[in-house]
């Protein structure tokens, strides 16, 4: 049911709403309508190409993703919000990537999982709105339902979807989380912004696995973030060398983006690095048993991939590392790991070091 409350001045209310959003820890708020027909065509084409790989949830919900009013009947507006996550206390990303004895974790995942934090803030903001305007229908989302969050962020003016398919903001780059409030409140719309990628192809050129197959088109099956986070089986051999030491996600396309020189550090202590995950030694991580994994990563988004995939990812990174007694000992300690998945990747890693050693011996 659509809200019939008209006792507030809609034009004057939006600036107040944006001010409230900042008080709850968000850096920007926008409002969009629910017409996602253009995004729907793009999504259908992407799914038809099979670019979603094993992410069956992308096609499971039919039209719910592109029709907000089907997900929450009565929805006529979507309030979109962004929250910066770039941690000020983290080791330099490129220095970590260039040190093959260390593991690289995507900078969004160094601290606590953002889902609960953002959801609480979105609920508090929604309650503040309802207190001001009276009864209204609403539901909050933080990557928790079939929601086209990037398309909605673009429509509401939070930024534009760049060639790497992340949302970009001219003043803040792309290091931010997105959240949404579906509502039946007839709020005024905020204006979209234009695309400012221009002729730049830095993100396309740097991608280690060439996952950005064309501007604005990502084949997730090739993406290191997909391979280390979403994929549950064996990582295709063709991508293992290119993964380098990236053990959870990949930030290369964002790190090289010129707009991220304007990125702001987060003010949320929850997003600052925990347990040295900004520059961890691979061999040390590979020694964790499952109880340590669960304990050290409690409240972390990394935990959702599970212990087995965590070891799988580290095994690949150790296979790409320069040989050392520490690296070889770590791999040999898991040569007979109970997990077939882990054993397969450990065997591959050990074989890489054998090949490297044989090549070195021939060169002597």
Automatic annotation (TrEMBL):
Its EC number is 1.17.99.6. It comes from the Bacteria. The keyword Ribosomal protein does not apply. The active site is at residue 143. GO terms for biological process: tRNA queuosine(34) biosynthetic process. Cob(II)alamin binds at residues 65, 143, 167, 178, 225, 250-251. Catalyzes the conversion of epoxyqueuosine (oQ) to queuosine (Q), which is a hypermodified base found in the wobble positions of tRNA(Asp), tRNA(Asn), tRNA(His) and tRNA(Tyr). Belongs to the QueG family. This is Epoxyqueuosine reductase. It comes from Methylophaga lonarensis MPL. The lineage of its organism: Bacteria, Pseudomonadati, Pseudomonadota, Gammaproteobacteria, Thiotrichales.
